[in-house]
């Protein structure tokens, strides 16, 4: 039986999944991320874990036809250009694992992998072109056009969280720029907006804000409306440029469900191009933390399919 493995490298855990040649999930597991010594041991822990899992499943290494890996940072065809949380700069992850396992390896940005996962077996199943956004501590995302990830010249396409905004205040982004979308549209940004409106540290989480809004709290409603308007402006700019079939929203803030997604869809209508307005579904991501391993595996499946005569 031929198999494919998807890997999603996070700051605290590395998630992995084993798929059959029929694209069925056989097993999934995770191991701790050893980021000591600038992540030097991460490739070896992945290699060891894959060998162990194949042995447990009674599968030979020769049955493994490819490994897809999602990494938190910009990636080109040969190296991980930068993964700050792991300590990697121009890190040859692909070459290390290919040399050890003698198996083709594809490495991609983790948000792009999650976008592919939702396209393959998640909220956007059946689509070919989507904008995917994760709204949590930051704002991440991926853009897929005609079934292919838009990666960009500098491996930085899909950095939705770094779309610049025009605002009345100044917030410095972790990237070093000022007033990026994630400064205002993330969970962190919404909490900061709420506390600025209140004039004191009133909340520490977005669930508190949505709960207060449901009780009629005007400050909470204003914080949510302000955050959603920033997101709608940025998303609409991107959507107007690429005209996708769907906008898929994941991340912790999406767990608010209709209390977040419905006003976001409504706010988008103000900024969308007339031909798109009213025609773009906004869906909540379905795969959760598994989206990355699904997408990483799908990238391998898609590449293998394109190579077949």
From TrEMBL:
> What gene name is given for the protein in this entry?
glk_1
Q: What is this protein called?
A: Glucokinase
Any coiled-coil regions, as ranges: none
Any one Pfam family match given in the protein's UniProt record, by short name? ROK
Gene3D superfamilies (UniProt xref): 3.30.420.40
The record's section on SUPFAM superfamilies has: Actin-like ATPase domain
Similarity remark? Belongs to the ROK (NagC/XylR) family.
């Amino acid at each position: 039986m031929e198999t494919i493995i998807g890997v999603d490298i996070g700051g605290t855990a590395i998630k992995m999944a084993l798929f059959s040649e029929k694209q069925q999930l056989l097993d999934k597991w995770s191991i701790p991320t050893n980021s000591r010594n600038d992540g030097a041991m991460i490739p070896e822990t992945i290699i060891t874990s894959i060998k162990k899992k194949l042995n447990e499943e009674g599968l030979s290494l020769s049955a493994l036809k490819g490994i897809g890996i999602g990494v938190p940072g910009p990636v080109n065809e040969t190296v991980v250009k930068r993964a700050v949380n792991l300590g990697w700069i121009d890190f040859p992850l692909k070459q290390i694992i290919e040399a050890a396992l003698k198996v083709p390896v594809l490495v991609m940005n983790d948000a792009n992998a999650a976008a592919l996962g939702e396209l393959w077996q998640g909220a956007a199943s059946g689509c070919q072109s989507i904008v995917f956004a994760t709204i949590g501590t930051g704002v991440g995302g991926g853009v897929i056009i005609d079934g292919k990830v838009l990666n960009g010249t500098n491996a930085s396409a899909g950095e939705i969280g770094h779309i610049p905004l025009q605002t009345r205040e100044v917030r410095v982004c972790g990237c070093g720029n000022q007033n990026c979308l994630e400064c205002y549209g993330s969970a962190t940004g919404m909490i900061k907006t709420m506390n600025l409106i209140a004039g004191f540290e009133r909340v520490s989480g977005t669930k508190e804000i949505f709960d207060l809004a449901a009780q009629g709290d005007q400050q909470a409603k204003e914080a949510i409306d302000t955050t959603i308007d920033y997101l709608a402006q940025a998303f609409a700019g991107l959507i107007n440029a690429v005209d996708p079939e769907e906008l898929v929203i994941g991340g912790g803030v999406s767990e608010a469900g209709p209390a977040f997604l419905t006003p976001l869809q409504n706010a988008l209508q103000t900024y969308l191009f007339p031909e798109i307005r009213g025609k773009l579904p906004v869906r909540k991501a379905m795969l959760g933390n598994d989206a990355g391993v699904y997408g990483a595996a799908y990238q391998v499946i898609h590449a293998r399919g394109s190579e077949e005569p």
